[in-house]
Amino acid sequence: MSKSIRFSSTGLFGLAMFILCAIGASAHAQEVKPKPPMYTYVADWQVARANWADMEKVNAPVNEALQKSLADGTLVGYGTDINLVHELKSETHDVWWSSMSLAGIVKVLEQARGASDAGSAVLNSAKHWDEVFVSRYYNWKSGSYKNAYTRVASYKLKDDAPDDAVEMLSEHMIAPLLEKMVADGTVLEYEIDTMAIHTEAPGTFDIVYIAAKPEGLDTVLASLRETLKAQPLSGQAFGSMVVDAGHRDELLKSEGAYK
């Protein structure tokens, strides 16, 4: 992740060493190594409330195309979300899919556009934008899901954060916690995303996880509190790299499938 500001190598090295010592302070901490890049395309829609009930019908042919792409291996996952906590400028609905290549993302985009109803009054009257993310830290449970809940926590890095800040936090703090939640079935999928196509300025990252049940949201938060209690320096390390005012959350009701 590039930065527009140059730093002194001594100051940056000192901060990096503090972070590594802090997030590795617990003997129980396990390191999660990065995986091959996984790309995710998200189509966001801000739909008028009067049209919310029609979105499932609008999404049906697109979901059929996405299911075919999952079956043939082009995709590793896809789904739809309904935003439960609305803002004036936020989406109400989204459709997304994930692939191990940008080529897969683009091929499925063309298929999804072909399956969409170009004359749809619901979509043509809605505000729309797209995002493309990349993740090196992720895991999932194979199979389909419905009535799950997705939590998205977005953070902005400080200007003096190390270039590999997201990697350090992911490997030593965030991914180990969420790996345990996947293993015990609390979480169906997680990923730590940065933008692959920068429609916004670089320097942000998202922590995303899908809880199988509403209670899973509380379970993850409780586990996070226990981790910070046992490893207080981890919280300090995280806080040393992110801008408090840059934090945003989303809570979504979700359905989809993973390979």
Summarize the structure.
Helices cover 37% and strands 31% of the residues. The chain has 259 residues and is of the alpha+beta class.
Helix percent reads: 25-40%
- Tell me the series of helices and strands, N- to C-terminal: HEHEEHHEEHEEHHE
Q: Biggest sheet, open or closed, and with what strands and sense?
A: 8 strands, antiparallel, barrel
Regarding quaternary structure, how should these chains be classified? single chain
Specify the CATH architecture: 2-Layer Sandwich
What can you tell me about this protein's structure?
The chain is an alpha+beta fold. Helices cover 37% and strands 31% of the residues. The chain has a single domain, classed as 2-Layer Sandwich (Alpha-Beta Plaits). It has helices at residues 9-23, 55-71, 102-115, 121-124, 165-183, 214-230, 232-241, and strands spanning 38-46, 77-83, 93-99, 127-140, 143-156, 187-197, 204-211, 248-258. Strands 1-3-2-8-5-7-6-4 form an eight-stranded antiparallel β-barrel, surrounded by four helices. Strand 6 and strand 7 (204-211) form a beta hairpin. Helix 1 (9-23) packs antiparallel against helix 7. The longest helix is centred in the C-terminal third of the chain and has 19 residues, at 165-183.
Question: Could you outline the blueprint of secondary structure elements for this entry?
Answer:
Blueprint: H1 9-23, E1 38-46, H2 55-71, E2 77-83, E3 93-99, H3 102-115, H4 121-124, E4 127-140, E5 143-156, H5 165-183, E6 187-197, E7 204-211, H6 214-230, H7 232-241, E8 248-258
Antiparallel strand pairs: 1-3, 1-4, 2-3, 2-8, 4-6, 5-7, 5-8, 6-7
Helix pairs in contact: 1-5, 1-7, 2-3, 6-7
